[in-house]
Amino acid sequence: MKTILSDKLPRILKNKKNLEKNLKVKITHRGKEVIITGKPEDEYVAEKIIDALNFGFPFANAMLIKTEDFLFEIINIKDHTKRGDLKSVRARLIGTQGQTLQNLTKLSESYFEIKDNQIGIIAPPENMGKSQEAVISIIRGSKQGNVYKFLEKNQNKPIGDLGLKE
Predict the structure, then answer these.
(1) Left (φ > 0), alpha (ψ -120 to 50) or beta: where does 142 sit?
(2) Among 51, 67, 83, where does a domain finish?
């Protein structure tokens, strides 16, 4: 049994039936507490998904953690910059009309959300390191173009024919 404090309880309750069915857990709530009961491995996955929903990710993206074995990580902006003006750092991450986040999403095949002074990332395990490195580079002041170039250069290559098929 795991207990999670949730700021976005209505959002979780709206998707409660889907969560219970897909994650094979029982979800109850008392006040702002969400209580998850089930097998330990199912509880762990449910906890990660509920954390992602609390962070602000759409339900479909949060469910990728279960269905596609994606990872969910949170980066704290304050850990990677000494600037006092965190509003401008967040603005650099978002970009004009959200363009920087869109480009990061396309190039890294990951999903990003910004909440307060934190950035949430949902990504496949092989892309998580690159996604984190790209976000941290922008936080530290790298030009967006250089970060895009880094992501383009380090894209996963599709696995070609290994000679096993006839």
Answers:
(1) beta
(2) 67
pLDDT band at 158 (very low <50, low <70, confident <90, very high): low
- Statement to judge: residues 54 and 90 lie in one domain: no
Give yes or no for residue 166 having a pLDDT over 80.
no
Any domain includes 165 = no
Listed in sequence order, the residues at least 6 apart from 129 whose beta carbon sits closer than 8 Å to its beta carbon are none
Question: Is the per-residue pLDDT at 165 higher than 80?
Answer: no
**Torsion 152-100-79-45 (CA) sign:** negative
Burial 72-89 (b: 16+ CB within 10 A, else e): bbebebeebeeeeeeeeb
Range of the domain at 43: 2-67
Q: Show the tokens assigned to 98.
A: 């959200």
